[in-house]
Write a structure and sequence with these properties.
The structure holds two protein chains of two kinds. Chain A is mainly alpha-helical. Chain A has a domain of 39 residues. Chain A has three helices and two strands. Chain A has a two-stranded antiparallel sheet with strand order 1-2. Chain A is flat and about 55 Å long. Chain B has a domain of 252 residues: Amidase signature (AS) enzymes (Alpha-Beta Complex), CATH 3.90.1300. Chain B is 38% helix and 13% strand. In chain B, the strands form two sheets. An eight-stranded mixed sheet of chain B has the order 4-6-5-10-11-9-7-8, sandwiched between helices. Chain B has a three-stranded mixed sheet with strand order 1-3-2. In chain B, α3 runs antiparallel to α4, α6 packs parallel to α7 and α10 packs across α12. The longest helix of chain B has 22 residues. Classes of the chains: A mainly alpha, B alpha/beta. The interface between A and B is large, with 53 and 72 residues.
């Protein structure tokens, strides 16, 4: 992990915000950058831990994930699926135009 | 009214089955409580008509002898659980008008067992917070020290406040890093986070999928046992659900703890923990010893790394889970001329500051070039934390710790995100290891605020956790009621 004081700067914050499609108003960027640096500085203490022979742990259950049969099925609940959509038409979700 | 509110869940259930009271009068008493304590802000949605009709249905079953385990018991549901046809917002602006078309497995289990829904309870936005202050519609107020506006804790702050204020006989919560146990401690009630996999996550708004677990918030340990009996169970719809039958927890209430070994981890008595909590922690150790338990000092050497590990893993999973809020399929949409701009404005306007911080951190630690240094590193340390517990459980049956380093604080007092994160220092390790933990009230500090003590058991040993917690509960004899509770 990099030096804890300047882990992220405003251009990096812009890049992260773009990756997660999050609009951050210009006035909030400085304080958000500070917060992120504080948090990333705090988690950087994991560097002290020797993990050279340790396997990562993704799940605590220990059980193998069950498989289901791969049935193609639309559930027959089109109305319910679309019920909470901000905009829908003829059984489709509607989004702003993507092709010029 | 007061006599009805005095009954805890187990007592109310007895009274209902013996026809001393009806579910309708009990439910009405709680609906009145909700309105009497509305200034606490615990409820986001009250479903009076549905509560009344469910109570009437329960009364029929109580009369015709087909009563189920929670028949006629009025409860509140944390707003993280999807409830069919009842608004479910996860305390977020982005879901402010979301009405699920399906029911979560845990709440369905409760209705199948006869429970009556009172309404939906506030929480931190997407369960991200430890004070209930990140809720889009404002914080909940702890019913203790009502003149001071204390935090109920979080994220299940509405659930804990409602149970403590007697505006719900019991409530559901979810716990990712302490979100059941910490608010239970702050509000002087019992909160149980089961083993990861005990309760289905299906239909619960996802925050951090490898950590999220549902559990009950109740007045007593027996009440928690009765609630969890109904909430838990294998569910095909959750791939991490444990296919293991949980024994009837009510059979384990009075098993005692003679000969059981209780581990006292040296890492949990650090600087910064309040003196009153240390005092009651020591008392709790003595109480268990007096009841025949053997007290054994133990060490969980990676404890100090639990919080930094959590604040990589939980945001990483959150950033992925919350990608679904894109203004297309459900939730709020901010209109814009292009698709990308629509996504960015929808999410920028729909999420609060803490949620944004966590999405940003999560995106960063998962991004190309940083994945190994942060996310993979945290997953490795997570294994070491789990192994610490595995080693200790070779020597002891249960681990006793304080639930929180301090009692409740005033709303608005903690502004810095990192200071807020430190609230969960004693609850996060068990979450990372997937272990069951319970917080129960054992006393009051010098300002009159409740103190919680936590017991942690090995995986799937909820029965033993209940037996041990019952002993601690009896010894502590905590019978205080919040000054802001309904009378």
């Amino acid at each position: 992990m990099p030096n804890k004081d300047t882990i992220v700067d405003v251009p990096t914050v812009n890049k992260i915000a773009r990756l997660c499609r999050l609009d951050i108003p210009e006035v909030n960027k400085e304080s958000l950058t500070n917060d992120l640096n504080n948090i990333l500085g705090f988690v950087a203490q994991l560097d002290e831990v020797d993990t050279s022979n340790v396997e990562p742990l993704a799940s605590v259950t220990g059980h193998k994930l069950p498989l289901r049969s791969d049935d193609v099925n639309d559930g027959n609940i089109e109305d319910l699926v679309l019920k909470n959509a901000p905009e829908s038409s003829s059984g489709f979700f509607v989004v702003p135009k993507v092709i010029e | 009214m007061s006599e009805l509110l005095d009954l805890n869940l187990v007592e109310a259930s007895e009274a209902l089955k013996n026809k001393k009271i009806s579910s309708l009068e009990l439910t009405k008493a709680y609906l009145k409580s909700i309105s009497d304590t509305s200034s606490l802000g615990a409820y986001l949605e009250i479903v009076e008509d549905k509560a009344i009709s469910m109570a009437k249905e329960s009364d029929k079953k109580l009369i015709d002898g087909t009563a189920r385990p929670l028949e006629g018991i009025p409860i509140g549901i944390k707003d993280m659980f999807c409830t069919k046809d009842i608004k479910t917002t996860a305390s977020s602006k982005i879901l402010e008008n979301f009405i699920p078309t399906y029911e979560s497995t845990v709440t369905q289990n409760l209705w199948n067992d006869g429970a009556v829904i009172l309404g939906k309870l506030s929480c931190d936005e997407f369960a991200m917070g430890s004070s209930n202050e990140t809720a889009a519609k404002g914080n909940v107020i702890n019913p203790w020290l009502k003149n001071k506006k204390m935090s109920p804790g979080g994220s299940s702050g509405g659930s804990a406040a409602a149970v403590a204020a007697r505006s719900a006989l019991a409530a559901t919560g979810t716990d990712t890093g302490g979100s059941i146990r910490q608010p239970a401690a702050f509000c002087g009630i019992t909160g149980l986070k089961p083993t990861y996999g005990r309760c289905s996550r299906w239909g619960i708004v996802a925050f951090s999928s490898s950590l999220d677990q549902a559990g009950p918030l109740t007045r007593t340990v027996s009440d928690a046992a009765l609630m969890l009996n109904s909430m838990a169970g294998y569910d095909q719809k959750d791939s991490t659900s444990a296919n293991l039958k949980m024994p009837d927890l009510m059979d384990y209430l009075d098993k005692g703890i003679k000969g059981k070994k209780i581990g006292i981890p040296k890492e949990y008595t650090q600087d910064g923990i309040s003196e009153d909590i240390v005092k009651f922690y020591e008392k709790s150790i003595h109480w268990l010893k007096d009841e025949g338990a053997e007290i054994i000092p133990v060490s969980l050497p990676h404890t100090k790394y639990a919080l930094p590990t959590y604040y990589i893993i939980a945001p990483a999973e959150a950033s992925s889970n919350l990608a679904r809020y894109d203004g297309v399929r459900y939730g709020a949409r901010h209109e814009a001329s292009s698709l990308d701009e629509m996504y960015e404005l929808t999410r920028g306007n729909g999420f609060g500051d803490e949620v944004k911080r966590r999405i940003m951190i999560g995106t960063y630690v998962l991004s190309s070039g940083y994945y190994d240094a942060y996310y993979l590193k945290a997953q490795k340390v997570r294994r070491l934390i789990k192994e610490d517990f595995e080693n200790v459980y070779k020597k002891v049956d249960y681990i006793l710790t304080p639930s929180t380093p301090t009692t409740s604080f005033e709303l608005g007092e903690k502004q810095d995100p990192l200071t807020m994160y430190l609230n969960d220092i004693f609850t996060v390790p068990a979450s990372l290891a997937g272990l069951p933990g319970i917080s129960l009230p054992v006393g009051l500090d010098n300002s009159g605020l409740p103190i919680g003590i936590q017991l942690i058991a090995n995986s799937f040993d909820e029965p033993g956790l209940i037996s041990t917690a019952r002993i601690l509960e009896k010894s502590a004899g905590f019978n205080f009621i919040a000054d802001g509770a309904a009378k």
